[in-house]
Amino acid sequence: MRRAIEHIPVSQSDTSEVRGTVTLAFADRHRRRIRLMDDAGDAFLLDLPHAVRLGDGDRLRLVDGGVIVVRAVAEDVLTITCSGPIATAKMAWHIGNRHTPLQVLKDGRLRIIDDHVMRDMVQGLGGVVFAEVAPFDPLNGAYHGLGGDGGHGHGHGNDHFEDPHDHDDHNHDHRHDHGHDHSHAHSHGDSHSHAHAHAIGEPHDH
């Protein structure tokens, strides 16, 4: 079986031959060691030194040469528009304070995974929410890549591949509210695809 042993961020230049792609939902992109199927249906083992958040466009280097490119699948998301840059900054703070992964789009809008509790909070703070089906590629935290636990201090050292009850490959995106003000917004900040968009709570035509 092919084995991928190195994570190469999309921001890092690499000229390796592309040997395939693997398309994953956000919840499946915080991994260390797990058996995956690429988009052509061929299996490979992801075997990294520590768990990392895989972003859209990141590459996984194979032992025998070449890379597999990670793609973010289109999934249910909420795209948020605020009245201006100050309101957007405040909204991002409130979202991050709830440990909710956040994507900042190129046009300045915000995006989160579809969640009715967060939707109600955003609307209560004056944000306009659109439900969409689009790739979700949130910002990585400040500690991303410095140890594998994203700065949370969980440090699970287990492998899903060998024991399905272990926790290494779980997605640690805790949505509990501690009542303190550190933000854990996660990901790269780019976006693509805006299919099936409509404003929550507003009439729309099909």
Describe this structure in words.
- Strand 8 and strand 9 (110-113) form a beta hairpin.
- The model is unreliable at 143-198 and 202-206 (pLDDT under 50).
- The chain has helices spanning 85-97, 116-124, and strands at 2-8, 18-24, 30-37, 43-53, 59-62, 67-72, 74-81, 103-104, 110-113, 128-135, 195-199.
- It is 11% helix and 34% strand.
- The chain contains two helices and eleven strands; from the N terminus they run βββββββαββαββ.
- The chain folds into two domains: 2-72, HSP40/DNAj peptide-binding domain; 74-139 and 185-199, UreE, C-terminal domain (Alpha-Beta Plaits), CATH 3.30.70.
- The strands form two sheets. It has a six-stranded mixed sheet, with no helix packed on it. Strands 8-9-7-10-11 form a five-stranded antiparallel sheet.
- The chain is elongated.
- With 206 residues, it is mainly β.
Task: Report the sheet-strand fraction.
Answer: 25-35%
Which CATH first-tier class of the largest domain would you pick?
Alpha Beta
Broad structural category:
mainly beta
For the record, give the distance between the C-alpha atoms at the N and C termini, rounded to a whole number.
46 Å
Q: What's the CATH architecture of the largest domain?
A: 2-Layer Sandwich
Mean pLDDT value: 79
CATH topology of the largest domain: Alpha-Beta Plaits
Widest beta sheet: strand line-up: 2-6-5-1-4-3
What oligomeric state do these chains adopt? single chain
Uncertain segments are 143-198, 202-206
How many DSSP-defined strands? Answer: 11
Tell me the domain tally: 2
Number of helices: 2
